[in-house]
Specification:
- There is one protein chain.
- By secondary structure, the protein is an alpha+beta fold.
- It has three helices and 17 strands.
- Among the domains are: about 150 residues, Glucose Permease (Domain IIA), CATH 2.70.70.10; about 30 residues, no CATH class.
- The radius of gyration is 38 Å and the shape is elongated.
- The termini are far apart.
- The protein binds zinc ion.
- The site of zinc ion has 5 residues, from loops.
- Zinc ion (ZN) binds next to loops.
């Protein structure tokens, strides 16, 4: 019984399927012939005028007008720019740079392209290197260990190791003291390290020159020899501090006077 039911549908579909194939062949034949002709006949030679211009390449971004690296990449600022009073000092002074802690011997890289203007040893700064950059900028690297062949007049590219971290001068442990100034005015390096600026108008000169009036008491890991005794004697003679006053001198440096009450 089952074979009798299944047979007729096969015959019913035979005709429509054949017709459909014929239509498909007819429809495909015209474009297929054109494609074949294209393969055989060469493409017409384009005249120079008709040539399509090459797709415009996206222009590379212009290099930044100013680029500053961090002298010790990846290391944190341990003591910021601003008014600071060391425990043995009678008044606060402007800390004209940032202190970046790092082990002695770590390579110090120059922050921007420039020319070495000064190197040497100073009682306070210890071994130092100063580099002049374009547009009145200068950077200073202090408390250095070894100087890596830097001397006046040497041209350095941004990122070049110029010295190693040390503990020279009046230092309270192995670190780099790093300053940026422009035309003699100290700027907060935090506004420049690891940053690029497209034009002079983008430089954060105002923000970087600002000095908050608050005096930060510095915590030091190591006191200079004999200093604790000196301070104790001074305090005993003068009494305790009762207030502070900040002022900016003609040289642009901020000084803080601590008023001392007579005991
Ligand atoms: Zn410092």
């Amino acid at each position: 019984m089952a074979p009798d039911i299944q047979a007729p549908p096969a015959r019913k579909f035979a005709l429509p399927l054949t017709l459909g194939f014929a239509v498909l062949v007819a429809a495909a034949s015209v474009p297929a012939a054109r494609a074949l002709a294209d393969l055989i006949a060469p493409a017409p030679i384009a005249t120079p005028v008709a040539a399509a211009p090459a797709a415009p390449q996206p222009a590379p971004p212009p290099p930044p007008a100013y680029a500053f690296d961090a002298p010790l990449p990846g290391r944190e600022v341990a003591s910021p720019f601003g008014l600071r009073q060391l425990p043995w000092e009678e008044g606060g002074r402007l800390h004209e740079g940032v202190d970046i802690a790092a082990p002695s011997g770590t390579a110090v890289k120059v922050a921007a392209d420039g020319i070495v203007t000064r190197t040497g040893t100073d009682p306070g700064y210890g071994r130092f290197v100063e580099v002049r950059h374009k547009d009145g900028f200068s950077t200073l690297y202090a408390h250095l260990g070894r100087n890596l062949g830097m001397k006046k007049g040497v041209y350095v590219k941004r990122g070049t190791p110029i010295a190693v971290v040390g503990d020279s001068g009046r230092s309270t442990g192995s670190h780099l003291h790093f300053e940026i100034s422009r035309k003699g005015r100290p700027l907060n390096p935090a506004h420049f390290m690891d940053r690029t600026f497209a034009s002079a108008d983008d430089l954060p000169l105002k923000a970087a020159a600002r000095v908050p009036r608050k005096v930060r008491l510095a915590h030091v890991s190591r006191w200079p020899e004999g200093m604790k005794e000196k301070v104790a004697a001074r305090r005993a003679a003068k009494g305790s501090a009762s207030g502070t006053q900040a002022s900016r001198g003609e040289d642009g440096r901020v000084r803080v006077r601590i008023e001392v009450a007579a005991s």
